[in-house]
Amino acid sequence: MRMSELSAATAVAVPTLKFYLREQLLHAGERTSPNQARYDETHVERVRLVRALIDVGGVSVARARDIIAALENDAMPLSSVFGVAQRAVTPPAGALNGPADEAASTAFTADSPGGRLILDLCRRRGWSVHSNNPGLAQAARVLDTYSALGHDRLHAVLDDYAEAADRVAGADLAAVASAPDRDEMTNVVIVGTVLGDALLAGLRRIAQEAESFRRFPLPAGTPTPTLLETDPSC
Amino acid sequence: MRMSELSAATAVAVPTLKFYLREQLLHAGERTSPNQARYDETHVERVRLVRALIDVGGVSVARARDIIAALENDAMPLSSVFGVAQRAVTPPAGALNGPADEAASTAFTADSPGGRLILDLCRRRGWSVHSNNPGLAQAARVLDTYSALGHDRLHAVLDDYAEAADRVAGADLAAVASAPDRDEMTNVVIVGTVLGDALLAGLRRIAQEAESFRRFPLPAGTPTPTLLETDPSC
Predict the structure, then answer these.
(1) On chain A, which terminus has fewer CB atoms closer than 10 Å, C or N?
(2) What ipTM score was computed for the predicted complex, to two decimals?
(3) Whole-angstrom Cα distance, residue A186 to residue A171?
């Protein structure tokens, strides 16, 4: 197919496709004339993946390029693919972007109370990870922020969160292991790691509201908004 | 204290403090002359909270203003405070920002395969929530994206993720319930909801790497990088 057809098939504008080609997010088509190239189903799939990473996963173009490179490197061990995907995910924390990028090559040092809590947690749970795992600094920073705001009581959530993280990681790896071959496994690692945060955050918002109604019922007389389960359109 | 002292106490520059005042993120000080005002400990605390929301939580200024308004509205039911905090959290998905803001006032309709999976999940788990809960559309969108990318196998994670979300929500609400008074409870709702996503995402990255080493050991001969637990600095 021509670029205009690739554009129609993916609903992505031609200038954007050209940008993806320049940024090496999309592999070149087969050249048919000095000004034309032919694209195929592999290009359609790649464009869909890039859109999902950027639009739904919130990944930057630079990080998407790292992911595509990992995808094309057949020799990269799966645990390293995980690392690339993890570092690509925009942390929910805006300003963590900068530090997180640097942290990619920096060993974690438990040099704050939050850091020591995370280190203890890793030992308690038998979590054996690289000292440059980006989650270490991110989790430590949140705990230190809780303290700075005078909310040490929030540290009490740590073990339940860790149990939840283990459950999620177990499901993530089971999905990877169920893939039929190495290419598909790499794909599942990337898509599941990058988009899984958004899925988990979404489910947390639902569970949180359900639990808050259980614990703190609305005061009598408050107009009851439409609940999902009573919505006739469902 | 004067504004310069508030700046020193919070490590936030004076022009930024003036911006917070204009944007109603910070309450006015007590005026002592036409050009001067006096600030106190409540201002220090507020500035710290605003910084945490914006820097660590990745919340926009507009959403931070909603949160501060909720904080100052003593009549707002706690479940509504949760709603404000949930909607303020930047979704891990970049492009979800726009739709999520609109979704704040839009009822969820299970009009896609992902939406129906989420609706079924809510029924299965007995999650009773408003139809405008922002997590519904966010979770549905991720599932639909998995499908669009040909990764239906990733739907298998849903029940484990939901179990994890319930565990996290239980811990969140227990932390809220442990606060001594209504002001503090509101604060814990906001801080825990906004920063909890980053904590959970960080722990997920750690658990995922630990689990991936268990399931997929590095090939023999691969140089072993420094693992956290063997790091002598720990």
Answers:
(1) N
(2) 0.86
(3) 16
